[in-house]
Amino acid sequence: MPGERLTLRSTSEIGRFPGVALPTRVELSIQKVEEKKQEEGGCRRWFRKICPCCCKRQSSTSYDITDKVEWAKGPTPEPVKPIPEKPENGELKETEAKLSVCSVDLLSSKTGQNRVEHHTNLYHGDELIIRRGQTFQIEMELNRPFDADNDKMHLELKTGLLPKVSKGTHVIIPLVEHLEDQGWEAKITEQNGCKLKLSVNSPANAVIGLYGLTVLTRSLKDEAPNAHCSSKSVILLFNPWCEEDVVFLDDEEQRKEYVLNDTGRIYYGTEKQIGARTWNFGQFQEGILEACLFLLEKSDMSPSGRGDPVNVVRVITAMINAQDDFGVLVGNWSGDYTGGTCPAAWSSSVEILRTYHSTNGTPVCYGQCWVFSGVTTTVLRCLGIPSRSVTNFQSAHDTDVSLTTDVYFDENMEPIDHLNSDSVWNFHVWNDCWMARPDLPPGNGGWQAVDSTPQETSQGIFCCGPASISAIRSGHVYLKHDTPFVFAEVNSDKIYWKRNQDGTFSQVYSEKKAVGHCISTKAVGSDEREDITNLYKHPEDSEEERIAVETASRYGSKPDTYCAAAAEDVRVEVKIDGEGPKMGCDAKLSIVVKNQSSEPRRTTLHSQVAVMHYTGVLKNAIKKDQIPVELLPNEEKKIEWILPYQEYQNQLVDQAALMLSLCGRVTETKQVLANQTSFRLRTPDLSIKPLGDAVVGKEMSAKITFTNPLPCTLKDVVFRVEGLGLQKGHEVLIGDVGGHATLTLTEHFIPSQPGPKKLVASLDCKQLTQVHGVADIVVLDQ
Fold first, then answer.
1. Looking at residue 560, what DSSP letter applies?
2. Is the peptide bond before 466 cis (omega within 30 degrees of 0)?
3. Active-site positions, per UniProt (predicted)?
4. Element (H or E) spanning 534, and its range?
């Protein structure tokens, strides 16, 4: 039936699990096939006469509905206008002619008053794109002058498949003498002969989305109204500039950054070796707004729910991943990206969203957390919700709602693999979005954490948030949505458990600073990194931070975790010198052991280094050692640890990440020592040097230089180059690059937009990933 929706779910295992099954490409269509007409029985004929509305005849019409958003492409035919009867003298007075609309001008030019005042002039296209809670102007021409005493007029806006006045999806806009700024209303501001100009106001809680506009007029009290449908659509967005909108952000510089900036920085690596890459959000590019509205249509959310940003962002986090609803991106952590694009090769949301929309909702292959976050930022900013990508280093993944990261050992202090389901990712990227939270106690508005990476289900769906960052900081994990999961990511303690002889477990050690380090986002107005850890948690080991942890733990599955504390007088930590080891060289770290007691201490440290996916899943161990340590009272020792290049060169996975694990027992006190430190091997950056003058319409070039850091040959090297307003994204197939060889690529392009722009490039091959670069280019107008 027209308006029916199909929900197709995939049983593929994606998320953090290594096995990946691609969702089948599906085009949703519903077709009603003409059936053979059957003879109607006498009882049915009688019932149809008594209640015709409940017993309508079968229609033989064939429908073919494709769930795809498209702008209106041409004028809608106007209804046939009946010719008024002429009086006996053969003349018809101008005021007696039936009032009708000849044309409607939505004043939707990118440079016009509406789109400039509504901060939508950067969007591609000539539709009327406006923000709710703010007045906009339209003009129309009538077949005769409007007579306020005898003529009636109102506007109607409709969105969704089944618009209803009661749901806010069928809006009736009356003409009023004075705008009250509290609801849908319109006022005639200018009248010149047959031409009218109207100011139209929308409420700050209006449903966002794609609307069709109709003007209805009538001139006699009992006559049927005459309808004129606008040939252009009206697109209504959230409004961070409107104080009454729940997404209102009161800082103009932050609005420029978190709503209007179409490029950004996403951070990765480890806390001691933070890497940064430029990401093109491209929310104003051609087809992106259309794709975002299509995404809302593909979801199961009723159009009436699109007025609440809590509902919208929750649905967006579900639809960005393809885990259970054929969303935008297929997650893949297996290392095999056959049939798709390596996640590290993406540097823009534009191609991803365009591909998803143009294929009628076929999920795009492949993504990992920073790709999910980049696309989420694009969609939220495009819809008018302030948002940013956020990276948490040493990000915990709590799988049992204990609000701790648990590590289990047997009686001999050997790890029990089948119980160690919790993990700590080197880094994880999610999003913050800004909104008030009237559904929560006061004080919980502002930044909210949302996460589109499919990790755990929330109410049966792979989505996460919005979780109040204020609630996370205070340990108020009982507040919705998904606050316990995000709290564990940033502030859970790492608890080590040892199995007793009777099969029970006892806590033998805890790390209070193991997770949630250097939480990072791009700074407002610059490409610098801003550390926002203080927004998510109190300073480590402060009384406030410990209270928050213990408060949260009481709502978890192990509420008695903090009943007792163990004595600790020996410390062990791992330090990384400078920017850390480089790819292609020996990896050198320092192990520091400190005795804080007035007595001597002895221990043997068992070290193991393993290759690791950035999600915290270990691939395999590549080196093990035993290190005897003897400490005098209050002595500190520094031990150099080395991993030769030859031992890791053929072992690495995507992020070139490794984890060094240390454990031991102090002979005198039986204190358990434990430390896990993740680090990465730094990859080189691409050098991008602009050549020539940057002027709109004038050809210029840029030289991209790369030096292979490895002694071996890189196979099947591919460059991806893109610059918003400079040139479209494209691939350059390079082929093989010899060991330690230097490669130079010159790109020629013609800038199409003035202003500050960024040319972004990335390199992808099997042996080396996360190689990228950016050049800032200021384009002058002609």
1. T
2. yes
3. 369, 428, 451
4. helix 533-536
Strand 364-367, strand 329-331: pairing: parallel
Q: Nearest 5°: phi and psi at 741?
A: -80, 155
Q: How many whole angstroms separate alpha carbon 510 and alpha carbon 566?
A: 8
Distances (CA, A) of 169 to 118, 187, 205, 227: 21, 21, 12, 19
**Phi-psi region for residue 500, left (φ > 0), alpha (ψ -120 to 50) or beta?**
beta
Assigned superfamily of 101-237: Immunoglobulins (2.60.40.10)
Choose the catalytic residue: 242, 369, 382, 433: 369
The CA-CA-CA angle for residues 658, 661, 662, to 5°, reads 150
Domains of the chain by residue range:
101-237, 254-554, 570-680, 687-779
Reference 702, options 671, 728, 723; nearest CA is 723
Angle separating helix axes 483-491 and 543-553, nearest 10 degrees: 140
Based on the residue annotation, tell me whether 365 is a catalytic residue of this protein.
Answer: no
Per DSSP, the residues of 7-31 read --------TT-S---PPPP---EEE
Taking the alpha carbons at both ends of the chain, their separation in whole angstroms is 54
Euclidean distance between CA atoms 475 and 424, whole angstroms: 20
Catalytic-residue membership of 451: yes
Q: Residue 14 pLDDT > 80, yes or no? A: no
Could you give the residue ranges of the DSSP H alpha helices within 608-668?
A: 645-648
> Which residue type does 634 have?
N
Decide whether 254-554 matches 687-779 in CATH topology: no
Residue with tokens 């043997």: 604
Closest Cα to residue 349, out of 369, 319, 373, 318?
A: 373
Distance CA 136, CA 683 (A): 51
- At residue 144, what is the residue type? R
Task: Compute the average pLDDT of residues 488-496.
Answer: 90
Say if residue 185 carries a ligand binding annotation. no
> How much is the average pLDDT of 298-305?
91
SS3 category, 321: strand
Dump pLDDT digits (tens) for 136-187: 999 999 999 999 888 999 999 999 999 999 999 999 999 998 888 779 999 9
- Assess contact for 407 and 496: CB atoms under 8 A: yes
Average pLDDT, integer, range 353-371: 96
Q: Is 671 helix (H, G, I), strand (E, B) or coil?
A: coil
347 pLDDT more than 90: yes
Q: Write down the architecture of domain 254-554 according to CATH.
A: Alpha-Beta Complex (3.90)
What's the CA gap between 79 and 67, in Å, rounded?
27
> Tokens 């680090």 appear where?
679
Question: Domain spanning 687-779 has what CATH number?
Answer: 2.60.40.10
Residues in Cβ contact with 368 at an 8 Å cutoff, skipping those fewer than 6 apart: 331, 332, 333, 343, 344, 453, 614, 654
pLDDT grade for 675, boundaries at 50, 70 and 90: confident
SS3 content of the chain, % helix, strand, coil (to 5): 15, 35, 50
Which of 451, 482, 654, 685 is catalytic? The answer is 451
pLDDT tens, position by position, 225-277: 899 999 999 999 999 999 899 999 989 999 999 999 999 999 999 999 999 99
pLDDT digits (tens, 9 = 90+) for 601-645: 999 898 888 887 766 656 778 898 889 999 999 999 999 999 999
115's enclosing H/E stretch is helix 113-117
Distance from C-alpha of 289 to C-alpha of 297, rounded to nearest angstrom: 13
Q: Give 557 or 6, the one with higher predicted confidence.
A: 557
Confidence of residue 691 (pLDDT cuts 50, 70, 90): very high
Residue 369 annotated in active site: yes
Of residues 324, 328, 249, 331, the one with CA closest to residue 296: 328
Is 540 annotated to bind a ligand? Reply is: yes
- One-letter amino acid at 439 equals D
CATH fold for domain 570-680: Immunoglobulin-like (2.60.40)
Q: 118, 357, 397, 428: which is the annotated catalytic residue?
A: 428
